[in-house]
Structure formats: structure tokens, C-alpha cells
Amino acid sequence: MFVLDATTEAEKVVDQGLGILDKIWNFIFDNGPRFLGAVIVLIAGLLLCKAAGKLMKKALKKSHIDETAHKLILQIADIMLKVLVLLCAAGTLGINTTSLITLLGAVGLAASLAVKDSLASLAGGFMVLFSKPFSKGDFIETNSVSGTVENITLTYTTLKTPDNKRIYIPNGEISTSKIVNYSAEETRRLDLVYSISYQDDILLAKKILAEIVERSGLALPDPAPAYLVAEQAASSVNLAVRVWVKTADYWDLNFYMNEQVKLEFDKAGITIPFNQLDVNLHGDKASVTGHKEA
């Protein structure tokens, strides 16, 4: 009796095993082509993604897009292509890709709302990198700060001030602000104004200014420097000097002119008016008057 029961149980186990194998076989027979097609699509798609990435990398090197943006562009393109391959493989398996796309869209929207400030800086970084209002090494002014562009990333632009401080500005702010690029052009015009008294010789003063400019060796001959009477002020004659100079020499010529003009005007006896304060005492009262004298 015991042997008979054991045999019956063994037959049941065998029958269950055969049933499972039949189900697996039927599943493979019915869905095998889909799985094989999905695997082929997946492998071929990943190989194409790799090839497309290499081609895009070569194209970016030949383009005028800033190198800082190359890595992110390649990463975004790689993710998008791989998502497309996965959707194609899912479609080959018979999965409804419309629902997957809807789900991905909902997840993307939720994520974008959570990091909208970071996305604004990211979008600003793309605008800065593609529109290129400035490049690394340019001296710019934006958001009431100025400095030399040291680094440009997708989220921040780093400026180095003349006194060696670093300023990190979010690209989202830069993309919506006024930008003054002092290094964009090869040449700039240096505008200076020097005041002399009404008793001084204007022609002599202009001659001295022209000699100083020529002696500097930094002024460009074309356009030619200009020496003009800018204003007959209340207590001085203001002479304007307009000199074109290479951008790299702008401040060198500026400081040179200011020093040499003072020295040469002193030698020639040309006075530079300055403000004076007179205090007049009348008994227990005092009056203060200000004027400009040589």
C-alpha cells in the first residue's frame, strides 16, 4: 500500500513537471520570435547609438560650439537615442509604448518642476555657449560686476576680478542681463579729458598732448588721434583727447597719459585748475565759498 502511494505521488510530480515544461515551450513558441526580435533591435540599436555618438563627437569638434558644451550635448543625445531604442524594443515585444511615453512625460514634468531653477541656469548656459556673447579670457561687465572670464560651464560663469577675486554668476542671470564685452573688438578708443586754466595757451597744451601720445608708441595712427576743446567750463577749459589703441594696450596708455600730462604740464607752466575752499569770518559768523583755481 505504501509503495503504491509513493508511485502515485511520483507520477503526479512528473505530470506537473511535464505540464510546466509544456507551458514554457508554448510560451517560447508563441513569444520566441518577439523576444528574438526585441534582442536584435536592442543590440543593433545600442551599436547604432555608439556609432552615432562617435560621428556627433567628430562633428562637434569641427563646429564652432564651445568645447564646454560638447560633453553635455553628447550625454543628452546618448540618453535620448537609448530611450528610443528601448521604446522600439518594447514595441517589438508587443508592449503598448503609448502608455510608456505618457509615463515618461509625466515623470519628466514632475522632475522639471522640482528643479526649475537649475533648469533655468542650464538653459541660460546653453544660450551663453551657443550665442557666445563672450569667450574665455574676455573682460566683461554684467550684473554690476566686471572681470576676466575664467571658466564657462552650463550652470555658472566664473569671472576673475583685477584684484584676484573669483565671482560665480549663474548663467540664468547672465542670459537675461546686459553684457558689456570690453575684449570683443581688437581696438578701442581711449577718451580722456584734461582741464587747463583760461590764462594758459590752448595750442601749446594741445601740442604737448600730441607729443605725449606719439611718444607712448601705443596709439594707432588710423584713425588719427584727435585733440579737441570739449568745453569752456565755469573756471577751466577742458581739452578732450581721443586716441585709438589696441584693446590689450588700453589701460597702459590710460595710466601713461595721466602721469605724463601732469609732468609735462608742470614743465610748461600750464596749470590744472582744482577746487579750493575759502572760509570767510565775519564777527561770530562764518561763510564758506567754493571755487576752482589754478
Brief digest:
This protein is 53% helix and 24% strand.
Please characterize this protein's 3D structure.
The protein is α+β, with helices and mostly antiparallel strands. It folds into three domains: 2-114, Orthogonal Bundle (Helix Hairpins); 132-181, SH3 type barrels (Roll), CATH 2.30.30.60; 187-275, Alpha-Beta Plaits (2-Layer Sandwich). 53% of the residues lie in helices and 24% in strands. The strands form three sheets. Strands 4-3-2-1-5 form a five-stranded antiparallel beta sheet. It has a three-stranded antiparallel beta sheet with strand order 6-8-7, with helices on one face. A hairpin with a 2-residue loop joins strand 1 and strand 2. The longest helix has 61 residues, at 2-62. The termini are far apart.
Task: Tell me the fraction of residues in β-strands, as a range.
Answer: 15-25%
How would you classify the helix and strand content by structural class?
A: alpha+beta
Q: Compute the CA-based radius of gyration.
A: 39 Å
The percent of residues in helical segments reads 40-55%
Low-confidence stretches: none
**Given this structure, which CATH class of the largest domain is correct?**
Mainly Alpha
CATH architecture of the largest domain: Orthogonal Bundle
- Strand runs, count: 10
Distance between the termini: 135 Å
Order of secondary-structure elements: HHHHEEEEHEEHEEHEE
Stated plainly, the CATH topology of the largest domain is called Helix Hairpins
The helix count comes to 7
Largest sheet: 5 strands, antiparallel
Rounded average pLDDT: 77
Main β-sheet, spatial strand arrangement:
4-3-2-1-5
Give the overall shape.
rod-shaped
Number of domains: 3
